[in-house]
Fold this sequence. Notes:
It is a single chain. By secondary structure, the chain is mainly beta. It has a single domain (15-187), classed as Pnp Oxidase, Chain A (Roll). Helix content is 14%, strand content 40%. It has four helices and 14 strands. Strands 3-2-6-9-10-5-4 form a seven-stranded antiparallel β-sheet. The structure holds flavin mononucleotide (FMN). Flavin mononucleotide binds at residues 17, 29, 31-35, 49-51, 54-56, 80, 83-88, 163. Flavin mononucleotide binds next to strand 3, strand 5, helix 1 and helix 2. Pfam families: Flavin_Reduct. Its EC number is 1.5.1.-. InterPro entries: Flavin_Rdtase-like_dom, Flavoredoxin, Split_barrel_FMN-bd. Residues 10-152 form the Flavin reductase like domain.
Amino acid sequence: MAKIKLGPQSLLYPMPALLVGAQVNGKPNFITVAWGGIACGDPPMISVAIRHTRHSLKGILENKCFSVNVPGADLVKEVDYCGIVSGAKVDKVAACNFKVTTGKLCGAPLIDQCPVNLECELYHTIALGSHVLVIGRITETHISEDCLTNGRPDVTKINPLIYTTAQSEYQTLGDVVGKAFSVGNELKE
Length: 189
Ligand SMILES: Cc1cc2nc3c(=O)[nH]c(=O)nc-3n(C[C@H](O)[C@H](O)[C@H](O)COP(=O)(O)O)c2cc1C
Protein backbone atom coordinates (compact mmCIF):
# COMPACT_ATOMS: atom_id res chain seq x y z
CA MET A 1 0.00 0.00 0.00
CA ALA A 2 1.40 3.41 -0.99
CA LYS A 3 2.01 5.87 1.85
CA ILE A 4 1.72 9.65 1.82
CA LYS A 5 4.13 11.73 3.91
CA LEU A 6 2.37 14.31 6.09
CA GLY A 7 5.52 15.81 7.62
CA PRO A 8 6.02 15.96 11.38
CA GLN A 9 2.59 15.87 13.00
CA SER A 10 1.27 14.95 16.43
CA LEU A 11 -0.78 12.11 14.98
CA LEU A 12 -1.35 9.32 17.45
CA TYR A 13 -4.50 7.33 18.16
CA PRO A 14 -6.45 7.07 20.31
CA MET A 15 -6.28 10.37 22.16
CA PRO A 16 -8.34 10.46 25.33
CA ALA A 17 -10.62 13.42 26.01
CA LEU A 18 -9.82 14.33 29.63
CA LEU A 19 -10.91 17.07 32.00
CA VAL A 20 -7.89 18.35 33.90
CA GLY A 21 -8.80 20.24 37.05
CA ALA A 22 -6.96 22.89 39.02
CA GLN A 23 -7.78 25.49 41.60
CA VAL A 24 -7.15 28.85 39.93
CA ASN A 25 -7.35 32.01 42.05
CA GLY A 26 -9.23 29.99 44.67
CA LYS A 27 -11.82 28.60 42.22
CA PRO A 28 -12.00 25.16 40.59
CA ASN A 29 -11.47 25.20 36.84
CA PHE A 30 -11.38 22.44 34.22
CA ILE A 31 -9.62 22.30 30.86
CA THR A 32 -10.25 19.71 28.16
CA VAL A 33 -7.02 17.95 27.27
CA ALA A 34 -6.52 15.35 24.55
CA TRP A 35 -2.76 15.23 24.74
CA GLY A 36 -2.34 13.12 27.82
CA GLY A 37 -1.28 9.64 28.84
CA ILE A 38 0.38 7.41 31.37
CA ALA A 39 4.07 8.27 31.86
CA CYS A 40 5.22 5.74 34.49
CA GLY A 41 3.84 2.68 36.26
CA ASP A 42 5.79 2.64 39.53
CA PRO A 43 5.34 5.24 40.87
CA PRO A 44 2.17 5.85 38.83
CA MET A 45 2.59 9.04 36.78
CA ILE A 46 0.61 10.80 34.09
CA SER A 47 1.55 13.55 31.65
CA VAL A 48 -0.58 16.20 29.97
CA ALA A 49 0.56 18.76 27.39
CA ILE A 50 -0.84 22.21 28.13
CA ARG A 51 -0.29 25.44 26.21
CA HIS A 52 1.58 28.12 28.14
CA THR A 53 -1.36 30.52 27.82
CA ARG A 54 -4.03 28.33 29.47
CA HIS A 55 -5.74 29.68 32.57
CA SER A 56 -5.59 26.19 34.13
CA LEU A 57 -1.80 26.04 33.89
CA LYS A 58 -1.50 28.95 36.34
CA GLY A 59 -3.38 26.98 38.99
CA ILE A 60 -1.36 23.82 38.41
CA LEU A 61 1.91 25.71 38.83
CA GLU A 62 0.65 27.69 41.84
CA ASN A 63 -0.76 24.76 43.81
CA LYS A 64 1.66 22.12 42.54
CA CYS A 65 -1.19 19.67 42.04
CA PHE A 66 -4.05 18.92 39.65
CA SER A 67 -6.69 16.31 38.87
CA VAL A 68 -7.33 14.22 35.79
CA ASN A 69 -11.01 13.41 35.39
CA VAL A 70 -12.10 10.77 32.87
CA PRO A 71 -15.52 11.71 31.51
CA GLY A 72 -18.00 9.21 30.14
CA ALA A 73 -19.69 9.75 26.77
CA ASP A 74 -22.72 11.27 28.52
CA LEU A 75 -20.55 14.34 29.27
CA VAL A 76 -19.60 15.06 25.64
CA LYS A 77 -21.17 18.54 25.62
CA GLU A 78 -19.44 19.51 28.88
CA VAL A 79 -16.10 18.18 27.59
CA ASP A 80 -16.37 20.25 24.44
CA TYR A 81 -17.50 23.32 26.37
CA CYS A 82 -14.49 23.14 28.71
CA GLY A 83 -12.32 23.01 25.59
CA ILE A 84 -13.77 26.09 23.89
CA VAL A 85 -14.18 28.57 26.73
CA SER A 86 -11.61 29.78 29.25
CA GLY A 87 -11.97 29.82 33.00
CA ALA A 88 -10.43 33.29 32.81
CA LYS A 89 -13.79 34.48 31.45
CA VAL A 90 -16.50 32.10 32.71
CA ASP A 91 -17.25 29.81 35.63
CA LYS A 92 -17.18 26.45 33.84
CA VAL A 93 -18.21 24.55 36.97
CA ALA A 94 -21.48 26.49 37.18
CA ALA A 95 -22.10 26.34 33.41
CA CYS A 96 -21.60 22.55 33.33
CA ASN A 97 -23.38 21.91 36.61
CA PHE A 98 -20.37 19.96 37.85
CA LYS A 99 -20.53 18.68 41.40
CA VAL A 100 -16.98 19.27 42.62
CA THR A 101 -15.42 17.41 45.53
CA THR A 102 -11.92 17.35 46.95
CA GLY A 103 -9.80 14.38 47.87
CA LYS A 104 -6.47 14.52 49.68
CA LEU A 105 -5.05 17.35 47.54
CA CYS A 106 -7.05 20.53 48.07
CA GLY A 107 -5.79 22.08 44.81
CA ALA A 108 -7.02 19.14 42.74
CA PRO A 109 -10.81 19.50 42.26
CA LEU A 110 -12.65 16.28 41.31
CA ILE A 111 -15.77 16.10 39.12
CA ASP A 112 -18.32 13.82 40.75
CA GLN A 113 -20.06 13.10 37.40
CA CYS A 114 -16.81 11.66 35.92
CA PRO A 115 -16.48 7.94 36.67
CA VAL A 116 -12.71 8.09 37.18
CA ASN A 117 -10.71 10.80 38.96
CA LEU A 118 -6.96 10.84 39.49
CA GLU A 119 -5.41 13.10 42.11
CA CYS A 120 -1.94 14.22 41.03
CA GLU A 121 0.97 15.97 42.69
CA LEU A 122 2.99 18.06 40.26
CA TYR A 123 6.24 16.17 39.69
CA HIS A 124 7.90 18.01 36.83
CA THR A 125 7.25 20.41 33.98
CA ILE A 126 9.12 20.56 30.69
CA ALA A 127 8.64 23.51 28.34
CA LEU A 128 8.76 21.83 24.95
CA GLY A 129 7.61 24.62 22.64
CA SER A 130 3.95 25.55 22.20
CA HIS A 131 3.07 23.25 25.13
CA VAL A 132 4.37 22.55 28.61
CA LEU A 133 4.55 18.87 29.45
CA VAL A 134 3.06 18.61 32.91
CA ILE A 135 3.99 15.42 34.72
CA GLY A 136 2.02 14.41 37.79
CA ARG A 137 2.45 11.65 40.34
CA ILE A 138 -0.91 9.96 40.84
CA THR A 139 -1.52 9.92 44.59
CA GLU A 140 -5.11 8.63 44.62
CA THR A 141 -7.56 7.04 42.19
CA HIS A 142 -11.33 7.34 42.56
CA ILE A 143 -13.78 5.23 40.55
CA SER A 144 -17.56 5.06 40.58
CA GLU A 145 -18.77 1.82 42.13
CA ASP A 146 -21.12 1.18 39.20
CA CYS A 147 -18.11 1.13 36.82
CA LEU A 148 -16.65 -1.98 38.44
CA THR A 149 -17.15 -5.59 37.36
CA ASN A 150 -15.98 -8.18 39.87
CA GLY A 151 -14.23 -5.37 41.74
CA ARG A 152 -12.16 -4.24 38.74
CA PRO A 153 -12.54 -1.11 36.57
CA ASP A 154 -14.69 -1.95 33.55
CA VAL A 155 -13.93 0.27 30.55
CA THR A 156 -17.27 -0.54 28.89
CA LYS A 157 -19.04 0.92 31.94
CA ILE A 158 -16.69 3.92 32.15
CA ASN A 159 -17.37 4.48 28.42
CA PRO A 160 -14.55 7.05 27.93
CA LEU A 161 -14.39 9.54 25.09
CA ILE A 162 -11.80 9.45 22.34
CA TYR A 163 -10.89 12.60 20.45
CA THR A 164 -10.03 12.32 16.76
CA THR A 165 -7.73 15.11 15.57
CA ALA A 166 -8.31 15.08 11.80
CA GLN A 167 -12.10 14.74 11.96
CA SER A 168 -12.35 16.84 15.15
CA GLU A 169 -14.94 14.52 16.63
CA TYR A 170 -15.56 12.53 19.78
CA GLN A 171 -15.95 8.77 19.59
CA THR A 172 -16.42 5.90 22.01
CA LEU A 173 -14.43 2.66 22.19
CA GLY A 174 -14.92 -0.08 19.60
CA ASP A 175 -14.82 -3.87 19.67
CA VAL A 176 -12.56 -6.18 21.64
CA VAL A 177 -10.29 -7.80 19.03
CA GLY A 178 -7.91 -9.87 21.15
CA LYS A 179 -6.73 -10.81 24.63
CA ALA A 180 -3.60 -8.84 25.63
CA PHE A 181 -0.38 -10.69 26.52
CA SER A 182 -2.00 -13.75 24.97
CA VAL A 183 -3.15 -13.40 21.34
CA GLY A 184 0.48 -12.77 20.26
CA ASN A 185 1.38 -16.26 21.47
CA GLU A 186 -0.27 -17.56 18.29
CA LEU A 187 2.73 -16.20 16.31
CA LYS A 188 5.30 -17.98 18.49
CA GLU A 189 7.08 -20.87 16.77
C1 LIG B 1 -11.08 18.10 22.21
C2 LIG B 1 -10.15 19.16 22.74
C3 LIG B 1 -8.87 18.81 23.13
C4 LIG B 1 -8.00 19.78 23.64
N1 LIG B 1 -6.75 19.41 24.03
C5 LIG B 1 -5.91 20.34 24.57
C6 LIG B 1 -4.62 19.94 25.05
O1 LIG B 1 -4.24 18.77 25.02
N2 LIG B 1 -3.82 20.92 25.57
C7 LIG B 1 -4.20 22.24 25.64
O2 LIG B 1 -3.44 23.09 26.11
N3 LIG B 1 -5.43 22.63 25.18
C8 LIG B 1 -6.28 21.72 24.67
N4 LIG B 1 -7.52 22.08 24.24
C9 LIG B 1 -7.92 23.49 24.33
C10 LIG B 1 -8.32 23.94 25.74
O3 LIG B 1 -9.16 22.96 26.35
C11 LIG B 1 -9.06 25.29 25.69
O4 LIG B 1 -8.19 26.28 25.18
C12 LIG B 1 -9.66 25.72 27.01
O5 LIG B 1 -10.59 26.75 26.76
C13 LIG B 1 -8.63 26.22 28.01
O6 LIG B 1 -9.28 26.44 29.22
P1 LIG B 1 -8.65 27.36 30.38
O7 LIG B 1 -8.24 28.68 29.75
O8 LIG B 1 -9.79 27.52 31.35
O9 LIG B 1 -7.49 26.64 30.95
C14 LIG B 1 -8.42 21.14 23.74
C15 LIG B 1 -9.72 21.48 23.35
C16 LIG B 1 -10.58 20.50 22.86
C17 LIG B 1 -11.99 20.89 22.45
